[in-house]
């Protein structure tokens, strides 16, 4: 549930939030927007959000909690927190963890998105600091606890620049469940500074017996969300040939006129091989926002 909620708000459906009346310091002049309660007491407790000297109690609009699931949508009128310095979050579950996803407001489902896990501080609250460049963001706040997971949302105009993630790339081909001859590559690049006009990848796969085969692909999607590129194989692509692992992946990535190269091994010496994805570290480094 948590993953699906985060994906939905990060690059998916839902209406663009409408602004509620808010002063620059984050105090609202209208009651906070909430979703419909579950009605049977089986839903999660509310999430308390404090910003700019004001406190707001938000009922989760989507959750799976104590066996009850509600696949809701964000309220049409989102709570607006103004330009508070930070957002402080309280929740009455000792084992709760939070993930915040901030999407640039007004950019639609493919707007640039930032994500972070929140840490509990000495006052037993979680603190959300600005991420990305200063500006207005649609924020999805997802909590996970022993009873399940839930989500609330609001808008926040960050008063300053925050942390900006470096570009990242991952690749999956072989896995413990699918032999190489039936595998299809899946490669993702995120947090690029700008969307390339064109992107292509070539991957050489070197097996343990020294045999090598090569596959190539144009980008399947570019810029959704902004700063990302996705490559994945389909059943129409030429099939790979079975060969013994471990496998060395030699990756050549073209972003417009620039070429970046990376090498990775699956399964890695540090991993147990249970996950097919490996991180890719490119040279020269991929261009980011910083």
**Continuous helix count:** 1
Please tally the β strands and state the result: 20
Shape: globular
Distance between the termini: 33 Å
Give the biggest sheet.
7 strands, mixed
Q: Strand percentage, roughly?
A: 35-45%
Structural class: mainly beta
Q: What is the mean predicted local confidence, pLDDT?
A: 86
Write down the secondary-structure element order.
Answer: HEEEEEEEEEEEEEEEEEEEE
Which blocks of ≥5 consecutive residues have pLDDT under 50?
Answer: 1-39
The total tally of domains equals 2
Radius of gyration, whole Å: 22 Å
Helix percent band: under 10%
Region (Disordered): 8-52
Biased composition (Polar residues): 26-38
Q: Could you please describe the fold and organization of this structure?
A:
With 290 residues, the protein is mostly beta strands. It contains one helix and 20 strands. Strands 3, 4, 5, 7, 8, 10 and 11 form a seven-stranded mixed beta sheet that branches. Strands 16-17-13-12-20 form a five-stranded antiparallel beta sheet, with no helix packed on it. The longest helix has 10 residues, at 2-11. It is globular, with a radius of gyration of 22 Å. It starts with a helix and ends in an 11-residue tail after the last strand. Residues 1-39 have low confidence and may be disordered. Residues 8-52 are annotated as: Disordered. Residues 26-38 have a biased composition (Polar residues).
